[in-house]
Amino acid sequence: MSLFGRIGIINIIVFALIVLVTVGFILLHKTEVETPEKVTEQLARKVLKEKSEILIEQLQQAFKEQNTKQVSSLIRDTSREGPAAIPFLMSSFKESNQPEFQMIIVKTMGTIPHQTTVEALKKLYSEYINEQSNSDVRKEMILALSRIDGRNNFETFVTYLKEEKHPPLRKVLCDCLVATGDIPKIDSVIKANQDNQSLIQDLTAVKNTLAKKETERDETVEIKQLDLSAPEGIDKLENILKSDRPLGLRLLALQKLEKANSAEAVKVLMAYLESFQGTNDNDKIVKLNVLVTLTRLRINEARLLVKKLLKNEDGEIRRQTVEFLGGFGDEASIPLLNQVVSNDLSSEVQQKARQSIQKIKERNK
Question: Which of 12, 19, 209, 270, by CA, is between 20 and 30 Å from 345?
Fold first, then answer.
């Protein structure tokens, strides 16, 4: 065979191989596209696109008609799509110029915990804050970020705090930093921003709050571990109960005393009621809870003390005292309650007294 004949055969073979490879690639590509997963994904995108177009049209009409109920319903329906709904919610936010509707949209975004949502909220915030924006809408954006992934947005909240001029929103951002930060992080930011006095002032307040929370956590552990078999344990709880410590710690001390249910614990509770002189809301809450605790313990001595409390100037204390008597269930309390029905200046307290009388009678049938 001549040289040219051999070359021709080789060219034919090479061409055939190229054709086979090309056909194989086309078939392989076609197979990949037509797998069930690919087909399902394509259909899902198509359905979501068609649904979004319909929803956008309906939402535009609802915006135009100022139909808050319809807007809320459409936005909720969209949120069921999860992260896939974020582009639609973003465009809806920009479509609406009503703060009321924008807040609905942002709140809904806050129910979709995903990184896509976080990035979308940051983008909206950065675009929105440059305008004459509504502070309530900005607040919802901040809270949504905090709910979804607050701990990983510490730096974001610091950045917003630097830029924000509105005092109530600065307070919201500080609360977010309390929830997401720690003292070393706050110290680091303070050190890096020595020229920003307003920022330092806010971050110092955040740091102090964090320090108080750490102290409360330590004291909570200490209260829970107190040995009440020793006199100093009861004394410690009494001091906390009478102190101006945070309400949560005082109520925890009260719970510990109730659990002890000893003569010493009851003596502490009775002494607290008899010597009560507090006037702030926390003091009143503690006093009312002490009454409730004595009701649960069914301490006879408490019934003698309530005679004084029924004449207290604070109507809320009188109401709680009346409920205490009803919970105690002693028929001997009925004359006292009848006096309340006849003489108390508060109609609410009178009504509670009637209910307590009925409760006592039913219990003693």
Answer: 270
Q: Could you give the C-alpha distances from 63 to 35, 107, 113, 160, 162, in angstroms and in order?
A: 41, 17, 26, 30, 34
Residue 41 has a pLDDT of 42
Torsion region of 246: left, alpha or beta (phi above 0 gives left; psi -120 to 50 gives alpha)? beta
**3-state DSSP assignment of residue 141:** helix
Residues 6+ apart with CB under 8 A from 46: none
CA distances for 206 relative to 84, 184, 250, angstroms = 36, 12, 23
Q: Cα dist. 24→11, 18, 305 in Å?
A: 20, 10, 95
pLDDT at 54 over 70: no
* Nearest residue to 312 (alpha-carbon basis) of 274, 286, 258: 274
* 310-321 pLDDT tens trace: 888 888 888 888
The pLDDT of residue 266 is above 50: yes
Using alpha carbons only, give the angle 174, 177, 178 rounded to the nearest 5 degrees.
90
Cα separation, 346 vs 324, whole angstroms: 17
pTM assigned to the model: 0.58
Dist CA 190 CA 300 (whole Å):
57
- The distance between the two most distant Cα atoms of the chain, rounded to a whole number of Å, is 132
Distance CA 362, CA 365 (A): 5
Q: Tell me the per-residue pLDDT of 129-165, one tens digit each, with 9 for 90 and over.
A: 765 678 888 899 999 999 988 888 899 999 999 988 8
Structure tokens at 173: 């951002």
Q: Is 64 left (phi over 0), alpha (psi -120 to 50) or beta?
A: alpha
